[in-house]
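Morning F.,

Quick status update on the modeling queue. The single chain you submitted on Monday has been processed. Sequence for confirmation:
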Amino acid sequence: MKRPRRGRPGKVELDFDIVVDAALQMADDDGLEGLSMRKLADDLGAGVMSLYYYIEDKEALVDAIVDRVAAEVEPAPAEADWKESTRHLAMATHQALLRHPWAIPLWSSSRPGPHRVTLMEQILAALASADLDADVVDLGFHAVVNHVQGFARQRVGFQTARSTDEARLRPGGFDVDLDEFPHVVAHIDYHRSGHGRHDEFAFVLDLILAGLERLPGS
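Structure tokens below.
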């Protein structure tokens, strides 16, 4: 993370990147609830009003740090075909969200910045290169990005409630007699055994891409 520079004694030199990088680190450390303009200014050793020269308000700051998460997604290799490109971008976005779980619920609600828009363009361009019908490109885009965000939300939710989940997965953790639900019991065993042999995120992503690949014209 870039650190603020000091010019003449008592004066901290800031720029947009320094402010956003510090805010991103604060969100990673303390969650969004721990991020405030005053705390950020204290962390940077600057006056709180000086931040508003670079960032309009906290909402704009949150938009900027979400966009910085999107900046971590590397483009797909130039030689990749549409399926490889889409898979690469989806996997990389999923990993970026898991590194910054506070960003998951904001991925659809925050105002997209340049890195988010670039990522959207790359996924849409990859799908368009499959010669899918225009509306199927949009449907495929939604299927992929909803899987990315939804699976990340589920993964983080399970980790956050791990102790509750472990209690629920024990035989006495349900309010019903599980002897009457053998398939549910088998599914519980799947979770208790570590999700079997599959990378669940990649497995479902590949199902989505395989379905698109089978459509006429792809």
